[in-house]
Amino acid sequence: xxxxxxxxxxxxxxxxxxxxxxxxxxxxxxxxxxxxxxxxxxxxxxxxxxxxxxxxxxxxxxxxxxxxxxxxxxxxxxxxxxxxxxxxxxxxxxxxxxxxxxxxxxxxxxxxxxxxxxxxxxxxxxxxxxxxxxxxxxxxxxxxxxxxxxxxxxxxxxxxxxxxxxxxxxxxxxxxxxxxxxxxxxxxxxxxxxxxxxxxxxxxxxxxxx
Length: 210
Description:
Layout: H1 10-25, H2 29-45, E1 59-61, E2 66-76, E3 82-91, E4 98-100, E5 105-113, H3 125-128, E6 131-138, E7 141-149, E8 156-158, E9 165-166, E10 171-175, E11 179-185, E12 189-191, E13 198-199, E14 205-209
Antiparallel strand pairs: 1-14, 2-3, 2-13, 3-11, 4-10, 5-6, 5-9, 6-7, 7-11, 8-10, 12-14
Helix pairs in contact: 1-2
């Protein structure tokens, strides 16, 4: 993941650049300009900037770029099997779409589920839309990152597998073209963000353990 763009974007970036150069060579200037615009868009969308967190050990960093949709307490009976605090983040087309680990730990479970493609900011999509669950364990604590596809997002990509060890801020996957990421944590963590706030993956501290 040392590339300045996510590797999944290369199948879009390279062909658009090649087609632009080919049309320029053939002096088909309108098409050359069009393909170059596609090249710039894909380069921007699949960007993968270096993110170095300076957070404390008891702090969780954002797994996604975007705006906080909400912070709520609820029962998470399937993966965490306990009461949990959830922070939901909506990623628009202009956000970085590489998702990152909120803390260091071991990947205990990865599970993908098919579903619908409703708008990512609507309520109820966490049970209806296509999604991918990443269960992360650190010492005696468990955290759940859920990648949720949106209306435009038709592909969820997961980089990690069960029993992998990940560092805090390491890339764990991405979702193409607009989506949502939820982070579930123990209720002993105090949220440091609120609805509507802009956050950045691997940089913004979302919560602090008490």
